[in-house]
């Protein structure tokens, strides 16, 4: 089917919007189960689920642009380790988050699953210690 003028296409342009609560550390978690790229050795497709977690500073990534950015790797030959670090580097450069972690969980290839984790911590940022509350009585009933 031919593309219409309003069709979406892969793009390397990521867009942002202002952090709605920059005075608070909060975690944004995204699961992207349809990532694909090509094996640089064989040209065969590699499939992965990407898990992005980040604590924004002043900017958040806009979801449609992230979807189109992730889609842009579909026809690129790249190693799992390289693409995981490139995506994280691009997001860190754009967002300058307090913290970011990208986990790539690739499907089996030759009997081997690849799981790559890359992290970023802003200079001087330290997470607040977790608050451990006793279990609420109403939850025990």
From TrEMBL:
Binding site for substrate: 61-63, 80-81
Main location group: cytoplasm
UniProt keywords, alphabetically: Cytoplasm, NADP, Oxidoreductase, Queuosine biosynthesis
GO molecular function ontology, one term from the record: preQ1 synthase activity
Family annotation (InterPro entries): GTP-CH-I_C/QueF, NADPH_dep_7-cyano-7-deazaG_red, QueF, QueF_type1
EC number annotated for this UniProt entry: 1.7.1.13
Subcellular location: Cytoplasm
Pathway connected to this protein: tRNA modification; tRNA-queuosine biosynthesis
Entry GO terms, CC: cytoplasm
Coiled-coil positions: none
Reactions this protein catalyses: 7-aminomethyl-7-carbaguanine + 2 NADP(+) = 7-cyano-7-carbaguanine + 2 NADPH + 3 H(+)
Top-level taxon of the source organism: Bacteria
Gene3D superfamilies assigned to the protein according to its UniProt record, in alphabetical order: 3.30.1130.10
Family: Belongs to the GTP cyclohydrolase I family. QueF type 1 subfamily.
Protein name, entry field: NADPH-dependent 7-cyano-7-deazaguanine reductase
Record organism: Hydrocarboniphaga daqingensis
Record lineage: Bacteria, Pseudomonadati, Pseudomonadota, Gammaproteobacteria, Nevskiales
Record gene name: queF
